[in-house]
């Protein structure tokens, strides 16, 4: 009888964890999208006045591509965070997990601040390497909590790897 009660409790916990929760989902989406919006605001002025005059490598994507790609990536980051949030009761070091998450978001924002606002390409290049490391750490931490959440960081890592290569080439060319 006691064993049966534990199994039912576990089963109901599993079902409750899988139930979609709109408000937490919305909050988890708004956090990275807000960081993205702030980064877009920082970028907005110099994307028209400074960036067009930089020498860029031949593989530089068109400007219109950056907004949709970053929007999609921030959505994936939000979904990933929501999946981890759903398992927050199982996370041994929740404050550390949250810290890793916000560190990579802050580093993402710092790159826009250094590159576009201050036009410090070299500093942005150094900073983006720290961002890549933070993405790897965050992705691994999330993967250990929820495999899908960690795998959702792969496109983010790939895009920032490409952005690192692009930043390096812009630095060399300018």
Please tag this protein with its features.
single chain, 174 residues, mainly alpha, 8 helices, 82% helix, 0% strand, disordered N terminus
- Count of DSSP-assigned helices: 8
The largest β sheet comes out as: none
Q: Which percent band covers the strand fraction?
A: under 5%
Helix share of residues?
over 70%
Structural class: mainly alpha
Q: What's the overall geometry?
A: elongated
Written description of the protein model:
The chain has 174 residues and is an all-alpha fold. Helix 2 packs antiparallel against helix 4, helix 2 runs parallel beside helix 5 and helix 5 runs antiparallel to helix 6. The N terminus is likely disordered.
Topology (elements, then pairings):
Elements: H1 2-18, H2 22-44, H3 46-49, H4 63-86, H5 94-117, H6 121-145, H7 147-151, H8 153-173
